[in-house]
Amino acid sequence: MPSLQHLLHPKAKDIGFPVRRLLPAVVRQSVGPFVFLDHMGPAHFPPDTTEGDVRPHPHIGLATLTYLFSGAIMHRDSLGTVQEITPGAVNLMAAGKGITHSERMPAHVRQDDAAVEGIQMWLALPKPLEEMEPEFLHYPSTAMPEFNGDGIHLHLVMGSALGLTSPVKTYAPTLFAALTMKAGSQFQLPADYSELAFYVVRGEVYTDQDEKVEAFNLGIAADHDGLCLIAEQDSTLIVLGGEPLDGRRFLNWNFVSSRKERIEQAREDWINQRFPTIPGDDQEYIPLPR
Question: TM spans, by residue (predicted)?
Answer without folding.
Answer: none
